[in-house]
Structures are given as C-alpha cells and as structure tokens.
Amino acid sequence: MLELDIITKHFHTKQGIVRAVNGVSLTVDDGRILGLVGESGCGKSTLSRCIMQLIPVTSGSIKLNGEELTTLSKAAIRHRRLDFQMVFQDPYASLNPRMTVFATLAEAIKQRHPKIDKQEATRRVIKLLDTVGIAARHMQKYPHEFSGGQRQRIAIARALAPEPKLIIADEPVSALDVSIQSQILNLLRQLQRDLNLSMIFISHDLGVVHYLADDIAVMYGGKLVETGTADDVFYRPQNDYTKKLLNAVPKIARK
Ligand SMILES: Nc1ncnc2c1ncn2[C@@H]1O[C@H](COP(=O)(O)OP(=O)(O)OP(=O)(O)O)[C@@H](O)[C@H]1O
C-alpha cells in the first residue's frame, strides 16, 4: 500500500518559488487503481516523479508498505525504484528503438533477477508477451515494426517485467486512436484483476479515468481538491473544478 502524507514539492526559479505540489495526501491500496486527474500544469507529473523517487520532495512522507522512502540512501532508492514502474503517453519513451522486444524485456527482468539464465529469461519474456496479448513469434522484432497500440502493450510488458508493486501510467492512451484506447484500457483493467496490481492512472480526461479507476483524486494548482470513489466523484462531484472537468466529458460517456 502506498501512502502519501502532506507532500510538497517547490521549485526555486528566477521568477520565484513554484509550488508545483502543495500538501497532497493520498493512499493507494493494494490491487486498486487511483485515477489522478487535472489539467496541464496542475502538478500531476511532479507528484509522480516524487513517488518514483526521481526528485526529492520538499517536505512530507511517502511510505510503501509502511517503509518510509523519503529518507532512504541513494543506493537504497535505486533498488526501491524497481517497485515503481511507469507507462508513458509515448511508448518510445520507455522502448529503446535499437533493441528487440526480447532484449528490452530480458533486460528489464534482469534488473530484478540479475543472475537469471537465458532459458528462464526467454520463458518469462514469452509469458509477459502473452499477458499483454502479443504473440511470442514477434519477440525478435524492433519497436518500429509494431503499431502504436502494440507498442503500448510492449511498454506495459516492459513495466511489468521487474515485478513492480505499483505502476504509474501517465496519459497512456491519449496518443492512441480512440478504438485502440479502449483495448489498452481493458488490458490495464484485466491486468489489475489478474495480477492484483496497484496503479496510479494519470489523465486530464475524467471520462477515461472513471472508466478505469476505483478511486479518483482531482488535482488543481498543486492541491487535491476532491477525492472519493470513482462513482462518487463522477456522478456526485462536490467541487466546482471537478464539475467543470465533468462538463468537458462527452455526455455519452456519462450514461
Ligand atoms: N523542474 C522544474 N522547475 C520549475 N518549475 C517546474 C519544474 N517542473 C515542473 N514545474 C512547474 O510545476 C508546475 C506543475 O508541473 P507538472 O509538469 O507537474 O504539471 P502536470 O499537471 O503534470 O502537467 P502536464 O499534464 O502538462 O504534464 C508547473 O507550473 C510547471 O511549470
């Protein structure tokens, strides 16, 4: 379980202090998907970079299964980072264009199991590809030989390979065709059920977030303005900003 307690992240710039994240507290329980929603610049990426231990928090506490992460040594942080994996909007961000799918996934598996032999690595690569719906016969291909949706499936397999405790998916479907979007959302939902995965799903689109998430946190100006179950936030929003976001959701998605 991930617990954030009053996280702040301030950047000191020539123009003054930017309070990118300003007192955010939230919990992601095991096997649940938290949708983090808000418009560009509200602090979603900064918050996820803090959770990933890519940048230090200014203040606050981040605990994974009760262990405080903000005070770990650099060496410990490197190891802990395996517990958090990201899926990005553009799969090229996580896929090396010069590496085959097999090499990409085997390398990610080795991060967790450095001594694994080739036979066992191959077995695990085939299993990962099966999990995300890619045929094993494609494993010697390169990322450019796949469609956008297939690439995102491979990026999801790449994120699963080090056996993370939590996946942060940052706008993972917003660059895909609408027809492909629902396939990837259904895959994420299925993985969450089959693997009991915990996930933070970041999006500016409250409709997409409601489709996938168990709980929703709405962020505005570095703060959380509303949190609750997906249905409560979607059908019974309390905050004016959430209501404004909802007005941007096509009526058809709201039933
Ligand atoms: N390294 C940095 N130095 C200074 N300011 C920063 C830095 N990183 C982010 N910010 C500022 O912090 C605020 C939050 O940015 P952030 O990228 O977290 O928002 P976001 O909600 O993820 O936006 P987007 O959806 O466009 O990625 C913005 O005002 C941004 O300009």
TrEMBL record:
Keywords: ATP-binding, Nucleotide-binding, Transport
Transmembrane segments: none
GO BP term (any one): transmembrane transport
Database matches in Gene3D superfamilies: P-loop containing nucleotide triphosphate hydrolases
Any GO molecular function: ATP binding
InterPro entries according to UniProt: AAA+_ATPase, ABC_transp_ATP-bind, ABC_transporter-like_ATP-bd, ABC_transporter-like_CS, P-loop_NTPase
PANTHER family, alphabetized: D,D-DIPEPTIDE TRANSPORT ATP-BINDING PROTEIN DDPF-RELATED, TRANSPORT ATP-BINDING PROTEIN
Family the entry assigns: Belongs to the ABC transporter superfamily.
Name of the protein described by the UniProt record: ABC transporter ATP-binding protein
